[in-house]
Amino acid sequence: MAWQLSFYSAKVAAQVEAWPDGILASFARIAELMLEHGPDLGLPHTRAMGGGLFEVRAKGREGIGRAFFCTVTGQRIVILHAYIKKTEQTPARELEIARTRLREVKA
User: What would the pLDDT profile of 7-32 be if each residue is shown by its tens digit?
Assistant: First the structure.
């Protein structure tokens, strides 16, 4: 069975779609790879954040986008939260939003 990708909500989908073209193109390429080979691509494309949370590492001329995701039963990848990265470290607030949604999705 092939992998499927969905978004936590329409708001999360809209956040990703609003990314600058270069970052969005990078995200689309990584998403295609995830659908084809599964979500565990490893660096530089994806990274495990612990506790079943992972991040997509999209990069374009305009900057860096991050999309947190998890996997659920039936080979589904759920994009939980997305943001444009402005600092070296992942902001705690962004991580907390993703972890809260992860608990909801896994409940």
Answer: 999 999 999 999 999 999 999 999 99
Which pLDDT tens digit goes with each residue over 46-55? 999 999 999 9
- The closest alpha carbon to 31, from 89, 81, 77, belongs to 77
Q: Is 65 left (phi over 0), alpha (psi -120 to 50) or beta?
A: beta
Q: Which two tokens stand for residue 78?
A: 């759920």
Domain count for the chain: 1
Cα–Cα distance for residue pair 13/31, rounded to 1 Å: 13
Q: What would the 3-class secondary structure string for 8-73 be?
A: CCHHHHHHHHCCCHHHHHHHHHHHHHHHHHCCCCCCCCEEEEECCEEEEEEEECCEEEEEEEEEEC
- The rounded distance, in Å, linking the Cα atoms of 55 and 80 is 10
The whole-angstrom separation of Cα 80 and Cα 60 is 21
**CATH number, position 92:** 3.30.2310.20
